[in-house]
Amino acid sequence: MSGRAGRRGLDDRGIVIMMIDEKMEPQIAKGMVKGVADRLDSAFHLGYNMILNLMRVEGISPKFMLERSFYQFQNTVAVPALEKKIEELKEEAEDIQVDDSDNVKEYYDIRKQLDQYNEDYSKVISHPGNILPHLKGGRLIKIKIGAHDYGWGIVISFSKRKSRNQAQFSDHESYLVQVFVNTMYVDSPVNLIKPMNPNLVDGIRPAKKGEKARSEVIPITLDSIKSISSCRSILPNDINNKQARKTLNKALKEIIKRFPDD
């Protein structure tokens, strides 16, 4: 199935209409129809010049503008849901009974300390000064983006990020790594992935147990690298070729199978 599409809209009956102007794969069309739309968050703020101008207008103050802004509306609308959530969590906390709380607390503190050590360990390993010489094409790295664990992936390439609008990146954010993973949830809106933007939209995630997965190349920053392997795979000449991706996917599965203990 192939067609031509560019954007979608609704007619007066609420039926989705797709405007056709370019070739598109079936999976991309499915993502456009069923995918998750980008969240629209207001970035409204009062600048210095705006405040000065408001002070010259009778009856309108900076507070008046803030209270009637879309930014304030978005935050106010969320208040009832947050208050309800707080009450539910308070009730859950009151119902919790912990036996042998002293030992549990000691275990919890030790566990948190170990997690912090592991996090510090990962930051040292993934620092540009330490990891860049090893990020050759084909290198296997273990990836975790926030709460999303993609497991082992294959490095395709890496590049230094160019700052825009004088944006300052941390050491770990100053490089982008293109990584081939085979654990992407099959219905993730992968058409929304931008090669130079590591901020993946909601809906793009690894497959859960029992769900079908697919192969995809995703951009990550160095702080998403949790482990690096001594194993390297041979990369195909064209990673965008379907057959080449199948071969690379097979190689990744075979390496993981041969080294089950990481």
From TrEMBL:
Any one annotated GO CC term:
nucleus
Kindly give the InterPro entries that the UniProt entry links to this protein. Answer: Beta-barrel_MTR4, MTR4-like_stalk, P-loop_NTPase, RNA-DNA_Helicase
The record's Pfam families line, in alphabetical order, gives: MTR4-like_stalk, MTR4_beta-barrel
Tell me one GO molecular function of this protein. ATP binding
This protein's UniProt keywords: ATP-binding, Helicase, Hydrolase, Nucleotide-binding
Note whether Transmembrane helix occurs among the keywords: no
Q: Matching Gene3D superfamilies, A to Z?
A: 2.40.30.300, P-loop containing nucleotide triphosphate hydrolases
The lineage's top-level taxon is Eukaryota
Can the keyword Nucleotide-binding be found in this entry's annotation? yes
Q: A GO biological process this protein is involved in?
A: maturation of 5.8S rRNA
Question: Which residue intervals define the domain Exosome RNA helicase MTR4-like stalk in the entry?
Answer: 64-125
- Exosome RNA helicase MTR4-like beta-barrel domain location: 127-261
Q: What is this protein called?
A: Unnamed protein product
